[in-house]
Amino acid sequence: MPTVDTDARLPVPLPAPFPVAYPIEGLPARVTICEVGPRDGLQNESGTVPTATKVELVRRLETAGLAVVEVTSMVRPEWVPQLADAEQVLTALGPPPPGVRRPVLVPNRRGLERALALGVRDVAVFASATETFARRNLNRGLAESLEAFRPVVAQAVDAGLRVRGYLSMCFGDPWEGAVPLGQVVDVGRQLLAFGCTELSLGDTIGVGTAGHVRALLAAFDAAGVDVGQLAVHFHDTYGQALANTLAALQAGVTVVDASAGGLGGCPYARSATGNLATEDLVWLLDGLGVATGVDLAALVATSTWLAGELGRPSASRVVRALATPG
User: Fold this and answer.
1) Which of 15, 53, 105, 146 has a beta carbon 3.0–4.6 Å from 73's, enabling a disulfide?
2) Residue 208 and residue 12: Cα distance in Å, rounded?
């Protein structure tokens, strides 16, 4: 574990040699972190984040070794005002560096066409596993919203794009309560059948537990879905995100979503608090001897900077621990 020099803008050095790596048998050798901070993390901010700050955040995250950074969303400005500058952000960033992917969320065909016009090569669609959230978030019923995504995914695939499918409310819904495993699997299989190359299973309100994670992944396996097509997206509302992540890794998942500094929530589900913090995830994976390619010191420095830009402390426990002298 590297220490940090004074040029790294980290308040204190990382406490080398921590975390000590003690691997657990059966875990993947490497995990890909899908960094969602610039989109899912910032979309819930009440104050407008300057475009220049968003651009700088993406660049810093990529410099820290994150190879998949979700940049923004082509949503209509009145729906999510925070992301109204999507075109400006993408134009300022220019093409991604070699080996780096920058997914962009597209809510519909118009959003996809905007993304294509800017040269985007990775997109994502956002679906719900429940009827109520589909209506509140997408203004359509579950079946209708899925049918609306079919031509979007087809057009993206025809254009040679990689398409990620987000599936929200996989573990619980604030209006409907517990969500049956079979219902989640059914909706997820439809997204994969449309042509999504990856399906991210979201615990939008953070109510999932490790056993629930294993049960859902087993249900997908029983339905013939390869675990290599699945990713996990945990919110830390009840402090379960890291435990749930470990359960997913033990089941063979190798893609985990996280947000720098634990930023995030959901503007359509007020019980959803922040995402799993990327720094906390990297600390866990470093301690398990699982490779990520992420420089934890540079990542902590980035979130420390971002906390200053947002005017409040980071929600990441790792960032707070390393920013506290003594």
Assistant:
1) 105
2) 34
Q: Which residues does the annotation mark as catalytic?
A: 266
**For the segment 151-192, what is each residue's pLDDT rounded down to a tens digit?**
999 999 999 999 999 999 999 999 999 999 999 999 999 999
Residue showing tokens 């979503």: 257
Whole-model pTM? 0.92
Q: In this predicted model, what pLDDT tens digit does every residue of 117-146 receive, in sequence order?
A: 999 999 999 999 999 999 988 888 999 999
Q: CB–CB of 19/1 below 8 Å?
A: yes
**How far, in Å, are 45, 76, 104, 182, 257 from residue 87 at the CA level?**
19, 12, 11, 38, 24
Q: Would you identify the CATH topology of the domain 33-322?
A: TIM Barrel (3.20.20)
Return left, alpha or beta for 65; rule: phi > 0 is left, psi -120 to 50 is alpha, else beta: left
